[in-house]
Amino acid sequence: MLAVAQALLTVANAASKHTKALAKVAADVSRDCEAECKKHADKHEVCKACMDCCTRLIAETAKA
Length: 64
What we know:
Number of helices: 3
Mean pLDDT: 96
Distance between the termini: 18 Å
Low-confidence stretches: none
Structural class: mainly alpha
Largest sheet: none
Helix content: over 70%
Radius of gyration: 12 Å
């Protein structure tokens, strides 16, 4: 998820015409990561933090 999010940031900052397509991929990856982190969020703070980041990324990419 981190690699895809970083790639999306780089592409978006460059005002690339591919930003919207990569945003969809990033949202898909983030949904998978969010689901996995959710399994451990109540036991591990890092998993909760990651899950929350994924949730925010999904919401932001929906605006693209």
